[in-house]
# Entry
Amino acid sequence: MERHTGDEMLHMDLMGGQARVMLCETTQMTQTARDIHEATPVCTAAVGRLMTATAMLGVMMKGDRESVTVTIKGGGPMGTLVAVADHGDVRVTADQMQLDVPTREDGKLDVGGVIGHNGRMSVVKDLGLKEPYIGQCELVSGELGIDFANYFTVSEQQPSLVSLGVLVKGDQVIKAGGLLIQPLPGCSEETLEALELRSPMFAEISRELACAPKEELAEDWFRGLELRLLDRTPLRYHCPCSRERMERALLAIGRQDLQSIIDDGQGAELGCHFCRKQYKFTTSELQALLASAQV
Ligand SMILES: [Zn+2]
# Structure
């Protein structure tokens, strides 16, 4: 398998289609998320894992204008986390990303502690149709790997193994990535057993990625299982916000409220939650916006 560096999703299958495998590296996008949101290590790990799983869902979508939004409300101190993927373009936000909590007894970052595990996750797939697909389930652990596996199994009736990992040191993301394995209809007992036997190898995905490129890991993990590369998709942190979108948001608050902002004479400043870009509107720009909407 040809080796590419950088963030990318490998879409593969095993044994002539008995199982689907997605393996990705998401180091750079996790670093970008950390830098934009000035997130602490534990919060970086949380949003990195969330973006990695959301990228998997995003890459599975077929149509050009399809996108997926994952919302996690776990009741923990990070509040609500939201990640959106337009295929390989992913962005993320959370209420609170400056949390410092003690590491767990096993030395790992306490992602479940900052996300919480008393709540729900929802997956909204915008398929470009009138009604989006909405899947919901209870959070199991807040660690996200198990939660996404549970989501696939419960909401999409697709048993899945999900491994998500972010290795972070201070403000530096060393490696981030994820693995998804889904046995498909017709998967034999032998293949299932082989995957189960090998599952301990996938548990520490970010540490594995720190030792070897993803292509090498895939060849190693799935040796003898007729691994086939179907597709590769570049991944990146990307926010599609624009001044036009912010204008639409301003109009959406309603004519009366917009008029009262104009009457205040202070102008308006809107910030994007995903990339933290600030958009400033002067009073005369707001007046022109309101006038254009009245035509
Ligand atoms: Zn933005």
In short: The CA atoms of residues 34 and 197 lie 35 Å apart. The pocket of zinc ion is lined by residues 239, 241, 272, 274-275, 277 (CB under 6 Å). The chain has a mean pLDDT of 95.
